[in-house]
Write a structure and sequence with these properties.
The chain has a domain of 48 residues. 46% of the residues lie in helices and 11% in strands. A hairpin with a 2-residue loop joins strand 2 and strand 3. Helix 2 crosses helix 3. The chain is elongated.
Length: 95
């Protein structure tokens, strides 16, 4: 049976903050790898940079990132992608 713990709002906030801080310090950064990895699909690219697949497709088609293509197959290296996107910004939709 689970134990019920009675706590104040402030104590609960502190418990949650500590748990979140612990999890964040234990996580390895996704995009901070020095290894050169090849991306071979729109889905992989979108997951790698954390955007939707249509957005990644439009970034690729815009020519803002380097990619290598032979027929329908393409290849994007993660180190080049991060380098190309380092100065990339998107429009602010709240204007």
């Amino acid at each position: 049976m689970d134990t019920i713990i009675i706590t104040s709002k402030e104590q609960l906030i502190e418990i949650v903050r500590n748990a979140v801080a612990t999890e964040l310090t234990n996580k390895q950064p996704l995009n901070n790898s020095n290894k050169r990895v090849a991306i071979t699909s729109i889905r992989q690219g979108a997951q790698f940079i954390g955007c939707s697949e249509p957005k990644f497709q439009s970034i690729k088609n815009s020519g803002k990132i380097r990619f290598y293509q032979s027929g329908r197959k393409f290849l994007i290296y993660t180190d080049e992608l991060l380098e190309d996107l380092s100065g990339f910004t998107t429009k602010n939709r709240n204007k």
